[in-house]
Fold each of these.
Amino acid sequence: MTGREAGLAIAGVSHQTADVTALEAFRFPDEPAFLAAAKKQFGGVLLLQTCNRVEVMVEGNAADLRDFLCSQGRNGFFLLDGRDALRHLFSLAAGIESMIVGEDQIIGQLKKSLADAEAAGSAGCFVAQCVTKAVHVGIEARKRTRINRGSVSVGSAAVILAESELGSLAGRHILVVGSGEMGLLVAQALAAKQLTAMYVANRTFGRAVQLAEKIGGNAVKFSELYHYIALSDVVISCTAAPHAVIRAAELDQAVQARPKLADGSPKPLIIIDIAQPRDVEEAAGEIAGVRLFTIDNLREVNEKNMATRKAEAERASAFVEEELSVFLSQLRRQSSDDCIAVLHAWAEEVRIRERDRALTRLGTCDERTAEILDDLSRVLTKKILADATASIRENAHAGDRAAAEALVAALTRGTVPQKKKGEVRE
């Protein structure tokens, strides 16, 4: 597989290959700077960063992507290219690769990553084409299967985890830190749990108010965060902050202010940190009475979720394979059309030049003679190129663009170039 078909390479880490610490280490905190550096090396680049995956997608080959990421100080990542990269991208959009199989948030996350790349001028036409097709596949897979019926998001999985730890959330006080998309998903999942109180905290108080109004909660000022932590049974944190917002030292003081159990120990506090990078300092888990969970702990929820969705995931995978074959055929057609267009543009230039030379040599000639010469040159050009055109199309459709390009080069420049270093074949 070569050229446009093999031009996609993907590398990264995810919940399937890394824990929270590895995910955090692989992240690129300055996305615009990363995209600016990457677009100097590749025809197109996109960066997808969610709470449970960090992936880099480029128009280029796997070897170059590996070298680039190593130069950025990253290691321990998976690496895919060609058909495998496209299959992964389509499966990701279909919800098959998600921590919570069938969740819908990945569609919006892919769209946002593409929009960010386009705004940075780094996406490129080919990467945009692949992601746009993947989004279509993801939407259609959910229409054709039941992979997302009754599924949960990472946010609602956090609520399920809290409920499993406490037995029930009825009558509890819960604090949600963060009012973005994940915060909304958490709050919506909590809304039906018959809580005594739900608090929403965000650095921008106005956004906390907006979310609280949507779900019937109470917005609280971020400056009073630890006061409300002390009042809560569960804290679910999901901000987009680049650093920890719940620090161990202040949390320790808040825990000391909580009611005591009969034996004098602090009342247990469950903290679920589903942010990436993490919102809660790791040392918080060592505080007496605090039970700290991260997205790593949501794997069990996913396993239970997957057991009920296995058949639908298999149907979605079959659909992905169908769409993958269709898309690859489309890319091959485009590849052959590109090569043939180059050849015919060159041939037309040569035809016109030689026709005009012949007319000049004839001197004064009537319009009929000029028309005959023009028709003759067109017919000769068409017949000469017929076999070459068929061969180019055959090679491109077979996924071997290198052979198609070599044939074009041989005809237009009189040389057959060596195979490009790093070319990937199917």
Amino acid sequence: MEKSKCPEVRFKHFNESWNQQTLGDMFLPLSNNTLSRADLNYDNGQIKNIHYGDILVKYAAVLDCRNDKIPFITDGEISDFKNQFLQNGDVIFADTAEDKTVGKAIEISAVDDNYIVSGLHTMAYRPKIKLSPYYLGHYLNSNAYHHQLLSLMQGIKVLSVSRTNLAKTIIKYPSSVTEQTQIGNYFQNLDQSIALHEKKLSQTQNLKKAMLEKMFPNVGSTQPEIRLKGFNGDWVNSQLSNFISIKHGFAFDGAYFSEIETNLCLLTPGNFMIGGGFKAEKFIYYNGEVPENYILQENDLLVTMTDLSKESDTLGLPALLPLIRGKTLLHNQRLGLISFDNDELDKGFLFYLLQTESYHKYIVLSATGTTVKHTSPNKILAFVCDVPEFEEQKAIGQFFKQLDKTLVLQQQQLQTLKNLKQAFLEKMFV
């Protein structure tokens, strides 16, 4: 048994060397079409069309024609495409992309209608030999196959691979159809589990978004649409300036910024998540002297003052700082540190109030700048909001804190599955 022709991880009872052929010898190229998105619709038609974009956006390696949403060709006639219809087991490549996803492929599964492929950047193939369902789709998305494409890519900003070069790549597969089946089913089950976890995460994200709208009063109302049990009465209209102050960050000297990781981390708007919240990445490391009153503490509440995105995705939004062992977080410029002037406003309640759509809309509309948007402490403090009694504030903060814990757990579970898939994509193919 040749080690180079066998995967590192293998199902029991299989020990034969894998077969290999060039893609050009193993596949027949299929006809392509030059239809654009303008020729398609999602409502009705006789023929469905798989486009370049349908390949790049799909995480899974198999396109399930029963469940994936594929558009129709507007006014498409069967007689015009009858020799081009796809079959189960056909594969489609995206031959260009702005990153190394060029060469991403999907396998067609569960064909229940008339499907064709179109687009200048798609290449469709049909295997000349019968392979087990799901095997090809996952093999073609493995590192074992994709590393062959790296030396064949052309271009600088936009990468591409030609049909001629694609034909030179080597396809490897077990001689045993049973082994092919077990590999294909294993990855297909992983993809289905990932899809279910993504759906669950999306549902929780949508629930939080809906509750942020319904558990805070609408403009002109003194009570929210949805209220926690045991609370009643009107909320009091007030400005944030009646409860809090906001301190600007320090302009740390760029001469002491470090490309080498240190324990001193300057926070930037890049550490804020879209919608609000903290992310421990994109730190700027620092190795200079630090003013003591610009060292941040666990559970400090900060807001962003600057945003570079077109939609001002994080402008004015909050983050509560976690404890990051071995790191000291520094209060950098372009961030505001919130302090509480009295005991009338709960920090948890304020954290989620600053994530509401009405607050963010106010901040964006009052922002200055074109390419770079800016807000200020005064503008944030001038925000007019409705505030309930302190006990209800705490209860609302706890409700959303539990939702966020659920979101973090679901994100971790999803990432674990994706990491597992990536690990086995490297170890179960050659």
